[in-house]
Design goal:
Blueprint lengths: L15 E6 L10 E6 L2 H13 L3 E5 L17 E12 L5 E16 L7 E6 L18 H14 L6 H6 L2 H11 L4 H9 L3 H22 L6
Parallel strand pairs: 1-3
Antiparallel strand pairs: 1-6, 2-5, 3-4, 4-5, 5-6
Length: 224
């Protein structure tokens, strides 16, 4: 999806960004994530992102497995920053918005701030490849990806627009399937942290194959 701002490298992004911890949420560069914002602290976060002009929000998963129950959740070290590219007011106090992924980031430190939402100092320089669209997509095993997708759809009795899938470039296809996948936080984090598109596709294929094999042997209903 085209966006008005052109980010050509890590130096064009701020060192401090607001972060939105959301379990199971996976945003990837150039991917689109819809969000329904209703908590007052995150409404304030959106307002500030618009007011400051950068329109950026860092999506990151809380590491619930390693967080004390009485404290705010520890964050994973890697997230992805997105730019607000669509926003609508619902009329009942909510924002309906869409983020377009720009680049992954590494959390350097979480800051002590007065805002109701969390903010982190981050480093984008570990992910300079994220600023190049479609980088490495020729290495993706598209045939294997489509085969496991077909198996998943059949097992779950789902239908998709195959013409649209077949027309999609490898980067868009891999990242969209990863973002929409029904897997847990650990699996989503593994796909986020994959060093390249080829590895992300391989992780997605492996996770899906293991899930399908487990369902076949256990007799459990497929993932919905």
């Amino acid at each position: 999806m085209p966006i008005n701002a052109e980010y050509r490298g890590p130096g064009e992004l701020p060192e401090v960004i607001p972060v939105f911890p959301l379990p199971g949420a996976l945003l990837l560069p150039r991917g689109q994530m819809p969000l329904n914002i209703f908590e007052p602290r995150y409404l304030a976060m959106v307002d500030d992102a618009l007011r400051d002009g950068h329109r950026l929000i860092g999506m990151i998963q809380p590491d619930v497995a390693h967080s004390p129950k009485e404290a705010k959740p520890v964050l994973f070290k890697i997230g992805c920053v997105g730019r607000i590219t669509q926003l609508a007011e619902s009329g009942d106090g909510r924002y309906i918005l869409e983020l377009t992924g720009v680049s992954r980031f590494k959390v350097v430190e979480e800051l002590n701030v007065q805002t109701p939402y969390r903010q982190c100092k981050v480093d984008f320089f570990s992910f300079t490849g994220d600023f190049t669209a479609r980088k490495g997509e020729d290495a993706v095993d598209r045939k294997a990806l489509l085969e496991v997708l077909a198996d998943f759809l059949e097992a779950n009795k789902l239908k998709v627009d195959w013409e649209g899938i077949e027309a999609a470039p490898n980067e868009a296809l891999v990242n969209a399937l990863a973002m929409m996948s029904p897997y847990g936080a650990a699996e989503k984090q593994a796909m986020l942290e994959a060093p390249d598109l080829k590895t992300r596709a391989e992780i997605l294929i492996a996770i899906t194959e293991m899930d399908l094999a487990k369902k076949r042997t256990s007799g459990d209903p497929p993932v919905q």
